Amino acid sequence: AAPTGSSGGWLGWLLSGHLPALSPPAEFWTRLHNLLRPSPAFFHFILTHFKWFWDIINSTFIRDTLMRLVLTVRANLIPSPPTFNSDYGYISWEAYANVSYYTRVLPPVPDDCPTPMGTKGKLQLPDPQLLAERFLMRQKFNADPRGTNMMFAFFAQHFTHQFLKTSGKMGRGFTKALGHGVDLGHLYGDNLQRQHQLRLFRDGKLKFQVVDGEVYPPAVTDAPVHMVYPSGVPKEQQLAMGQEVFGLLPGLCVYATLWLREHNRVCDLLKREHPTWSDEQLFQTARLILIGETIKIVIEDYVQHLSGYYLSLKFDPELLFGYQFQYRNRIAVEFNQLYHWHGLMPDSFIIQGQEYSYKQFIYNTSMLMDYGVEALVESFSKQKAGRIGGIQTINTNILHVAIGVIKESRQLRLQPFNEYRKRFGMKPYESFQELTGEEEKAAELQELYGDIDALEFYPGLLLEKPHPKGLFGESMVEIGSPFSLKGLLGNPICSPEYWKPSTFGGEIGFEIVKTASLEKLVCLNVKKCPYVAFHVPDAEEQHSPRAGGSSTEL
């Protein structure tokens, strides 16, 4: 009889030339598949090398085929419908239906486990303050090797704050961003009352103020929304924006101003095309157009830059028509944890040659109008951002944020880092030295955690050795990109029911979406077009597709 117990027995039969009477066990095919399957690192290497080859591919139909493959393979890693949340570690109707929760890819570590991380590691996790100060706090600024700039850093922060809004009142596993995706709640407000306070109710437009002939967000005296500002800032100097925390940084105010101008510009175009339309229809259609513009810019400028791929990425919802795909999304706790990229922030901010400390920059309410959008865009585009991944990358001024993320992950009982690597198709690390690529800090981590399988999710993502010339390491790419792409293409406007000219006010609106770019967002809304990109002018990435490919996140 043919042996059936092991793949070794089957190999013997295959080599001897005899065919067994029975089919090989499933374990055999699994092992063979895993043996032959290229690693994520292999795919990353191919996609970030051989530019001459990708220049040919990008001009053929193969580009569409590969883009469809990227989208489907990545998106299929995200459970849809959602499965768990922080109160339900098993399938339940509540976990599915209650959108006040962030979802979860992996259920929480059960309360009755012998250690905080399950069965491995020590009985007590390391002190978060100690972890942050010893392994995360920056000793010396390390610029991203591919030239990522502050225009990129502020875009990341501005964009993600529409769907990453943890509810402090309800608890860490809850969100205030009930749209769970790209809904532009950070421009229009996350509820109807806030939206109405920001709207002009004329020609579909948002409220604004004009200073020295330039359009800016209104003051809270004219648009009485709740904004977070220090008590000493007069109401007249507080800008009213869709997201209540955007007054924190001038970089966030720049993007809020650009999108405000873009919304009102689009309303003017729609009004000209449809003179009989009501204020409501103009507003709602402009919002859909701006959602489309955002997704286009994120995929073809932002993710292109992150990926560093020579494959030219493409936003075309029709690539997925006729394929199985669910047009809905739920933001996950893991995505929220992962997207704390404070290593991007520099040690100081340089505006037209003038250096500003954190104390001078944060809540600086006059900088936006003193310098103007053009000057700030150019300055942000020319200042290098820091590297996210690797040891000791976060400026001391914002280290408290990382400490908060670690504490939150413990409250939510996130599973160990290696469990997430396995869940997203990667080989678990066998040692801290393999993780960090060095010995000294690896030995300290071993002493603190006791076992690589007890390493926490967020520290693992940050301390993993970065890709060569990359912003961060393999895990941030392989775990982050499925969440990102599912959220972008799962938007309703990408569905066959929505993706048509009539949704966007006719061909004029459809064309705005299809041709959107970071450069157009800026240059159509300022008087003189400055240098604008997600990389500094002399970065080597300027030769990659669309002059904007840089580091690692597809």
Write the layout of secondary structure elements.
Elements: H1 7-16, H2 26-36, H3 40-47, H4 51-57, H5 62-75, E1 84-85, H6 93-97, E2 103-104, H7 128-136, H8 150-160, H9 185-188, H10 192-198, E3 209-211, E4 214-216, H11 250-273, H12 279-307, H13 333-338, E5 349-351, E6 354-356, H14 358-361, H15 367-371, H16 373-382, H17 399-411, H18 417-423, H19 432-436, H20 440-449, H21 457-463, H22 474-489, H23 507-514, H24 518-523
Antiparallel strand pairs: 1-2, 3-4, 5-6
Helix pairs in contact: 5-22, 7-17, 8-11, 11-12, 11-16, 12-22, 12-23
Strand content: under 5%
Overall 3D shape: globular
Sheet with the most strands: spatial strand order: 1-2
Q: End-to-end span in angstroms?
A: 48 Å
What would you call the structural class?
mainly alpha
The amount of helix comes to: 40-55%
Question: Can you count the helices?
Answer: 24
Main sheet specs: 2 strands, antiparallel
**Helix-strand string:** HHHHHEHEHHHHEEHHHEEHHHHHHHHHHH
What's the alpha carbon Rg, rounded to whole Å?
Answer: 25 Å
Low-confidence segments, ≥5 residues, pLDDT <50? 1-22, 541-554
Mean pLDDT: 91
Q: How many beta-strand runs?
A: 6
